[in-house]
Structure formats: C-alpha cells, structure tokens
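Sequence dictates fold. Below is an illustrative record:

_____
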Amino acid sequence: MRLAGKVAVVTGAGSGIGRATALAFAAEGARVAACDIDADRVAALGRELGPGALLVERVDVSDRAQMAAFAAAVHARAPAADVIVNNAGVACGGDFVDISLDDWDWLLGVNLRGVVHGCHFFVPKLIERGAGGHVINVSSVFGLYAPPKHTPYVASKFAVLGFSRSLRAELAPHRIGVTAICPGMIATSIVDDSRAAGKIAQLKPRIAELFRRKGAHPDTVARAILDAVHRNPAIRPVGRDAWMLWALNRVSPSAVTRLGTAMTRRFTAGE
C-alpha cells in the first residue's frame, strides 16, 4: 500500500508507540486521525502533525459512545480509513490475589474493548468501500508467553492476538490485512502510567527506569507497523527479546515459560 494520501487511524497516539506511529504515517504522506485519553498529549500531537492531521481528538477507547463519535467524525472527512492502528494500551501488575476487579475492568476496557471498538466502528466502512486496507492490533510479547504477576495484561494481550488471527481469516476475502504487533520491552511511559498492586507497587519506579534504559525506541515499533502494512504478516514481533521468545515458543513452549518466569523474577528482585 502506498501511504501518500491514505487515511490512517491511530489510537493511544499521545505518547510512546502511538505517537511514533502517527508521526511515521504522516511522514509517509498519510492523513492521520489520532486519539488519546490525555488531552495535553493530544494537543501536543496535533501541533507536531501539523498539515498531516486529519483529526486529533481526546477519546477514551474503552467508551463505546466516544469511539462511535470519533469514527463518525473521521468518516465525515473521509469515506473510510485505509489503515486502523489499535494501539491504546495500559498495564497492571501484581499478584492475582492483590489485583482488584476495578483494575481488571479498567485494563480490559482499554486493551481489549478498545481494540474491538476500533474494529467495530471502522472496519465496516473498509468493507463497504471495497478497496482493501489494513488493521494493526498491538498485542505484546506477553501475548506470546505468560509470565506470572501480570494476569490482566497477559489475558488482554493473548485475547488481542487470538482476535486478530480470527479477524484476519474473516477479512482476507475483502483484501483487508490484519496484523498483531507483539513488541518486547519498549521505552514508553506504560509502566509509569500503570497500576500496581501489592508488593510490586514498591518496585514500579525501578521497573519504569529499566524500561527507559533498556527498552527499544518507540520508532522501532512504528517502523515495524509500517512494514506490516506493506507485507501483511499475521504476527510481527518487535525487538530482540520478542523475536527470541517468538522463535523459542515455536520450538519449546515449556522453555519459554521457564524463561519468562526467570525474567519476571529478575525484574521483581527484592520483592
């Protein structure tokens, strides 16, 4: 797909992967419809996008009515989006017994329902137009393996991966590709913005600093997303850690489980 003049929708675009992706699409000549729940970040992104912005709004992707209104505003400006990037995501860590149901509702609302809403309100217009397109759903390396102390996040990202694979088969006859992006450790604010329960809450600043120092730059994921739009893989790991776990999982899932548990223990050392 040549992106010049195309319409790209990006959720969670105020920072991190979403911001880098929105700017990358704009640099390719696409018109970007971006949203984020943080009003200040939305305003800053709008200034950065400049003429590349089709629409930039504050939207809570977990809210059905807000996503319906956002999609309607996009479709008032363009018959259909060409690329949909469901990126908005949050994290929650801690022992399962310490995590509240309110935290489960918050995380699944953004990470899973946000993806469903993005597809529900934008894909029908793609099908109706009949010119193909692409859907990018951001899962995670935690959609490839399941470490402990992250049960809500793991559940949401495994769900996004499975949802994407099913939707991919369904939309293929319409020439609409679907790719699940599975980033590893990326230097974003997701840990800073996360909720943490129990003893792991005390370790949140140290883990956030580790992500800032060791994580790959968000531009790495943005480039992978652009490449996925061109190549249409079903699953695209991003980062050395993600590729390693992806490859190992295909050979020995039990080894991935052991490795994932060991990595989690390292991150939560001192707990």
Summary: Residues 80 and 125 are 5 Å apart (CA to CA).
